Amino acid sequence: MKIVKKLALAAGIATLLSTASWADGLQGKVIGFSQIGSESGWRAAETSVTKAQAEERGIDLKFADAQQKQENQIKAIRGFIAQGVDAILVAPVVSTGWEEVLGEAKEANIPVVLLDRGVDAPQDLYLTSVASDQVKEGHVAGDWLVGNVGDKECKVVELQGTVGSSPAINRKKGFEDAIAGHANLSIIRSQTGDFTRSKGKEVMEGFLKAEGGGKGICAVYAHNDDMAVGAIQAIKDAGLKPGSDILVVSIDGVPDIFSAMVAGEANATVELTPNMAGPAFDALDAYLNGGKEPEKFIITESKLYTPADDPQGEYDRRKGLGY
Ligand code: AHR
Questions:
Q1: Alpha helices in 127-165 (DSSP H)
Q2: 209: left (phi over 0), alpha (psi -120 to 50) or beta
Q3: DSSP characters for 263-278?
Q4: CA dist 64 to 28, 54, 79, 101, Å?
Q5: Which of 10, 151, 274, 317 is the most buried (most CB within 10 A)?
């Protein structure tokens, strides 16, 4: 990494961490982190912030990138257990299939903290889960659309996240709940874009083609900003104006979506903080040092941003955070 970029990243992350307060209780602890991969800008920022948080607290963080594969995550977790780490963080790529390996960690007395995604497994298999309320995120996005289209007929295309992941399942549900009862709004096409920019673009191109060039599409709802940015490109390539011909609403709050808002090409995003590690380490500190059981679910905020919320300022505030 270039030195200027490195300094900007350090300065940005220092600002993000400056409000945190903790005892120095995790100094010297060894903590394994099984990360999903680097499918999105948000994921890259979560990785950067987690590493910075660990460094700040003197934690020896063992980082494992699963490259989108659950089997790699399970392997990494087993490796952490074999090393006898003090705790494990895991961002689970999909929600099912975790019981066995989480049971092994429990058996070894190693607390596990889930980051940013949920699992379908008994709650006693993990210490706590630090994540947003993903149903609410979808609901906030849907409410924004409902409030903005009024009585006009609005055909929506949906770019879903990774199949089987908790944000894809829950953000879909929240959005559907929000538009239910508004007969003028309907989802006419829905497909996974796997949370990536390139897939988002590709799937949006398919939607546009299937819908006669896109003239009948009123809005795209993307389960993350990266797919929305890909969709924006596809809409432009099709000769339409994203942000006006086709409304764009998504989730994450990454710098590029704020740039798109500045350009009039995106309409709304629901912020997801990349700082999941701060609350996770605080919970582990209290648990490992004071035996204090944390809340089972530590829920982060889901704030809506639109072009009325100083998108240039929001871009500037985030650009040094490792997105
Ligand atoms: O689990 C959080 C989601 O995963 C983010 O919204 C998305 O960008 C990421 O890949």
A1: 134-149
A2: alpha
A3: TT---EEEE--S--HH
A4: 19, 14, 10, 16
A5: 274
Of 195, 257, 276, 318, the residue with max ligand 1 atoms within 8 A of its CB, to mutate for a pocket test, comes to 195
Per-residue pLDDT band at 5 (split at 50, 70, 90): very low
Residue length of the chain: 323
Q: How many other C-beta atoms lie within 10 A of the C-beta of residue 222?
A: 32
What span, in angstroms and rounded, lies between the C-alpha atoms of 119 and 92?
7
Dihedral sign of CA atoms 62, 67, 71, 72 in order: negative
- CB-based burial label for 164 (10 Å; 0-12, 13-18, 19+): middle
Q: Write the pLDDT tens digit of every residue in 205-261.
A: 999 999 999 999 999 999 999 999 999 999 999 999 999 999 999 999 999 999 999
Residue 320 is predicted with a pLDDT of 86
Strands 297-300 and 268-271, sheet pairing: unpaired
Position 10 scores a pLDDT of 52
19 Cα distance to chain centroid: 21
Alpha helices by DSSP H, listed for the chain, are 3-17, 41-56, 70-83, 99-107, 134-149, 166-179, 197-210, 225-237, 255-262, 277-290, 311-318
% of the chain exceeding 70 in pLDDT: 93
Residue 96 pLDDT exceeds 80: yes
pTM of the model: 0.94
Atom of ligand 1 nearest to the CA of 272: 6
Contact (Cβ atoms closer than 8 angstroms) between residue 228 and residue 248:
yes
CA distance 36 to 8: 25
Residues in the ligand 1 pocket, defined by CB under 6 Å: 39-40, 42-43, 116-117, 167, 195, 224, 226, 251-252, 272
Distance 290 CA to ligand 1 centre (A): 32
